[in-house]
Amino acid sequence: MALKTKVISLCLLATLLVTMVTAVWPAFPSQSGIGNAPLGASMGSMMSAGRTGRSSGRGRASKGEVSDSCTCLHELQMVEARGRDNSDRLDKLQEEVSSMYGAISTLKSALNAVQGGGKSGNRIAPQAYNIAFSARVGYNRPYLGETEVVVFDELVINNGDVYDPYSGKFTSPVPGLYEFQTTILSGFNSTIETMMVMNGNEVSRMFSGGFNTRGSGSNAVLLNMDQGDEVWVSVFYGNGDYVHGQWSTFSGHLVQAYTV
Ligand SMILES: *[C@@H]1O[C@H](CO)[C@@H](O)[C@H](O)[C@H]1NC(C)=O
């Protein structure tokens, strides 16, 4: 429909031009022969009628009118051919676009599958975070009570300011998969049992001790954490009371953030 409107507009413009030219140039050369294209023919007769109405007042000869129509017909046929060509190209483009949509949809599914690991419903975020801490106990802790927090008061690194060396607690700044490691060295000829805790729930245990010596115990844990979740190390229920300074460490880092 748009093409037809364009063709009609072009045709009217051409008619106007021809009328103007023939008005100032009475000796406009005549041509013979009319094109056979159906659209061209019908449009040509339309134009011819329109032009006749306008030019009849000036007393133009009917032979000149036929020649004008022929010129316009040729233009029309060219426009029509070009329109058909453009239409074909548009169809081809539409096919390509829809095939690209298909490919994008496939890629999206594959990406979701890759990102779907970890906590159910959570997807891996594309942002790169620098979240990591490492701390150690600065001095011996001989009188730790049951479930008392072991405070690793000497910071080694604290990227993202995620670990509090006063409370001994790590707080998750973004939802994600986190890894923590702890090593606890016992006092001489004694034992201590400790645990890693998330939000008050034990997530791993460590035994440290030795007969006539010291002994270290360590463990690591991977945790899916929400923002604001906390992890710390504490004495296990009722066992041991001595953590050796300098040799005991607590570290953690974000493995991969999740989107919220
Ligand atoms: C270690 O502890 C055991 C058991 O309490 C004790 O018999 C031993 O004498 C201690 N060793 C030293 C060097 O104190």
Key words describing this protein structure:
260 residues, alpha+beta, five-stranded antiparallel beta sheet, 11 strands, 37% helix, 28% strand, binds 2-acetamido-2-deoxy-beta-D-glucopyranose
Descriptive account of the structure:
It is a single chain. With 260 residues, the chain is of the alpha+beta class. Helices cover 37% and strands 28% of the residues. It has 3 helices and 11 strands. The strands form 2 sheets. Strands 1, 2, 3, 6, 9 and 11 form a 6-stranded antiparallel sheet that branches. Strands 4-5-10-7-8 form a 5-stranded antiparallel sheet, with no helix packed on it. Helix 2 (38-55) crosses helix 3. The longest helix has 54 residues, at 62-115. The protein is rod-shaped. The chain starts with a helix and ends with a strand. Residues 27-62 have low confidence and may be disordered. The structure holds 2-acetamido-2-deoxy-beta-D-glucopyranose. 2-acetamido-2-deoxy-beta-D-glucopyranose is lined by residues 189, 212. It is found in: Secreted. Residues 1-23 form the signal peptide. Pfam families: C1q. It comes from Batillaria attramentaria.
Q: Any idea what the shape is?
A: rod-shaped
Mean pLDDT: 78
- What's the SSE pattern? HHHEEEEEEEEEEE
What fraction of residues sit in β-strands? 25-35%
Number of helices: 3
Which ligands does the model contain, each kind named once? 2-acetamido-2-deoxy-beta-D-glucopyranose
Pairing-aware structural class of the strands and helices?
A: alpha+beta
The main pleated sheet reads as: 6 strands, antiparallel
Taking Cα atoms only, what radius of gyration do you get, to the nearest Å? 43 Å
As residue ranges, the low-confidence spans are: 27-62
Distance between the termini: 49 Å
Q: What proportion of the residues is helical, as a percent range?
A: 25-40%
Number of strands: 11
Keywords: Secreted, Signal
Domain C1q: 126-260
Subcellular location: Secreted
Signal peptide: 1-23
